[in-house]
């Protein structure tokens, strides 16, 4: 596939606003870890470590934004 074809395919991909937001926070990998855990276990209770890490990351981002805009 040529570079032009790859570029055109990327342009056709729908933009996921949630993914974009999570990339801005720096927590996207932790979000994916939560999703993978749930996909594998089908049980949120078994994913508490991943959920806590994601929550902590989001809290750090939120606090940094609060400081930035206050």
UniProtKB/TrEMBL annotation:
<dbReference type="GO" id="GO:0005758">
    <property type="term" value="C:mitochondrial intermembrane space"/>
</dbReference>
<dbReference type="GO" id="GO:0033617">
    <property type="term" value="P:mitochondrial respiratory chain complex IV assembly"/>
</dbReference>
<dbReference type="InterPro" id="IPR039870">
    <property type="entry name" value="Coa4-like"/>
</dbReference>
<protein>
    <recommendedName>
        <fullName>CHCH domain-containing protein</fullName>
    </recommendedName>
</protein>
């Amino acid at each position: 596939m040529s570079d032009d074809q790859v570029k055109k395919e990327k342009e056709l991909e729908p933009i996921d606003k949630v993914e974009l937001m999570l990339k801005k926070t720096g927590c996207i990998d932790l979000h994916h870890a939560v999703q993978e855990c749930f996909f594998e276990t089908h049980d949120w209770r078994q994913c508490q470590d991943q959920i806590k890490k994601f929550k902590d990351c989001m809290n750090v981002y939120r606090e940094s934004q609060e400081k930035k805009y206050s």
